[in-house]
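Quick one - inputs below.
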Amino acid sequence: MKKSVLNVAKLEAAASKLRAIGHPMRIAIIDMLNDEPQMNVTKIYKGLGIEQASASHHLNILKTKGVLISKRDGKKILYSIKNAALSEIIDCINRCSDY
Amino acid sequence: MKKSVLNVAKLEAAASKLRAIGHPMRIAIIDMLNDEPQMNVTKIYKGLGIEQASASHHLNILKTKGVLISKRDGKKILYSIKNAALSEIIDCINRCSDY
DNA sequence: TTAATACATGCATATATTTGAATATACTAT
DNA sequence: ATAGTATATTCAAATATATGCATGTATTAA
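Output:
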């Protein structure tokens, strides 16, 4: 099992997912979805007090990077966390606040 | 214990740490330090095949954000991971590669 | 089919991050 | 003091990311 030469694609994939979560509003979205596992866009952007378009952009990033999934429910789109491990990361990071 | 209103400072702190790790070369650095817990800058930048200045920048980011610590050893500066939990995050992210 | 609601997308601008070349600083040995 | 080694810093250019406005699309109800 070699590991010495660095696999840039794999590193970029991991980095990309970390950057997806690495934004205050996106962490806030994940937090909200931790409390309430399925939320629509309106509830999210009003809950955060941001523009609808801004929430939509953030949600798209989180979905594209595999953090969230979405499904339509009538007029609404319900978002939820794809992999529970990802919300543990937030906890982990917070636990590391050691200065 | 209130949690409804979002604590932007705390969110930004967590996001900032995630972004610190969210770069291919910086993940590679953490990986290297997982194998060999103390490394100097020269060994790191040659191992990664990047510029010395680039490595220095990345190391500074990781140090500033509390991911790494450094100590001088003669002419060299030895870097190491500050909190082991942070390297678990990488594993965690990689485990989430589920497409 | 029209109107209203719920989201998404395109675009422009603003801001942040990355990179490398050049240069500066710190330490060691002579 | 000087030279060599190891690392940091500064700066500019390139690239990436964020934000908001305007507009587009999908769904429902009348």
